[in-house]
Specification:
Length: 233
């Protein structure tokens, strides 16, 4: 009787793009909505509100892409430096590296004999990959990809930011703030829920934590906008 094979999909496999996607979309919605609500609360007209929203979308997407690329590139540089050092140590002191790997497995619960056998076999198979995974914590699953992270951040930021821009475009000036705030709360709740599902977490908790901070950001910028609007008046 043949046994059915099965494949497992683990949430950690999504960590590379999921973090950038959720961060980008959330930042796009929150920052652009807050900007639009703040400008609307200051008593600006429809044209000014729309221009502010579009400017926030473009500038935010570029900023997210640049920031994510620099941040992830720095992490990649650190990983590559560690791998280069590990490669050199494997060439210069293989016995010491084998003992180091053995001790890692002993600390994880294997007896000395089994740990040594495992270390020898894994070293023969791929010494660098083994040390990268078990000593440095670097694996293909969590490897950093700067360009991918930058593109995902920019696209998801723009996708999130377009929601308040479209609402502002469709709303009269005196109703823009309310319309953008309501649509943003709904969009953030959906985004938080989807992010929680993709990451294997609770939907309600994911939606609540995203919505809370978005509402707070819009409330603060609305207050600032009203203060400056009254002062200007």
């Amino acid at each position: 009787m043949s046994r059915l094979s099965h494949s497992e999909v683990h949430m950690v496999h999504r960590i590379g793009w999921l973090r950038a996607a959720v961060l980008g979309a959330n930042d796009g919605i929150v920052s652009t909505s807050s900007l639009v609500v703040g400008v609307a609360a200051a008593g600006s007209g429809s044209a000014e509100i729309l221009i502010a929203g579009l400017a926030g979308l473009v500038a935010g997407a570029m900023s997210m892409a640049a920031g994510e690329y620099v941040s992830v590139s720095s992490q990649t540089d650190a990983e590559n430096a560690d791998l280069s050092r590990e490669r050199r140590e494997l060439a210069e002191m293989p016995k010491a590296e084998l003992e180091e790997l053995t001790q890692i497995y002993v600390r994880r619960g294997l007896d000395r004999e089994l740990a040594e056998r495992a270390a020898v076999q894994l070293t023969q198979h791929d010494a660098l990959a083994t040390h990268a995974r078990d000593e440095l914590g670097i694996s293909e699953t969590v490897a950093t990809r700067p360009v991918q992270a930058a593109l995902v951040s920019a696209l998801t930021f723009a996708s999130g930011a377009v929601v308040p821009v479209l609402v502002a475009l469709a709303s009269p000036a005196n109703k823009t703030g309310i319309g953008v705030a309501a649509s943003t709360i709904l969009a953030l709740a959906i985004l938080g829920g989807l992010g929680a599902v993709a990451g294997g977490a609770g939907v309600l908790r994911g939606a609540a934590r995203v919505t809370l901070w978005g509402a707070l950001a819009m409330a603060v910028t609305a207050a600032v906008g009203m203060m400056f609007g009254v002062s200007a008046g």
